[in-house]
Amino acid sequence: MDNPPYTFPARSNQLFPHHNYEHLKEEHEIGVVPPGATVSSTVISMHPYQPPPRDHIIWSIFSTLYVNFCCLGFMALVFSFKARDRKVVGDHSGASSYGSTAKCLNIMALVLSLLLLILIIILVATGVIAVTQAMHPGD
């Protein structure tokens, strides 16, 4: 185990060493066309920005987990996945079609589940009232 001791390089007193870099000339006359010269131009056609179609996947997941009335939430989730696949491929019209179908299915699942919840509340409330009246007929 005869390891020679490591010697550190000598340290200079300068914080930043001086290097001989070449200074570049600044050109201020960029774009000056001499008289009589022909100028060519490039035309770039740009389409207006269209936001990517929405796939409503988060809403579909919540519809599937919480408000899955007649499997409408699951169907909305399937259409959301299809919309996301179409969006990844680049088919924006197919993605918007599947996304709007998922949105409609989510709305239907939400409305039908709310109606079912309201119906259950009404039935429980009227059932409780009917039971209390049947137990105390003299009041």
Automatic annotation (TrEMBL):
TM ranges: 57-79, 107-131
Protein name (Swiss-Prot/TrEMBL): Interferon-induced transmembrane protein 1
A cellular component annotation (GO) from this entry: plasma membrane
Domain of life from the UniProt record: Eukaryota
Lineage: Eukaryota, Metazoa, Chordata, Craniata, Vertebrata
Compartments reported by the entry: Membrane
Keyword vocabulary terms for this entry: Membrane, Transmembrane, Transmembrane helix
Organism: Platysternon megacephalum (big-headed turtle)
A Pfam family assignment: CD225
GO biological process terms, semicolon-separated: defense response to virus; host-mediated suppression of symbiont invasion; negative regulation of viral genome replication; response to interferon-alpha; response to interferon-beta; response to type II interferon; type I interferon-mediated signaling pathway
UniProt family annotation: Belongs to the CD225/Dispanin family.
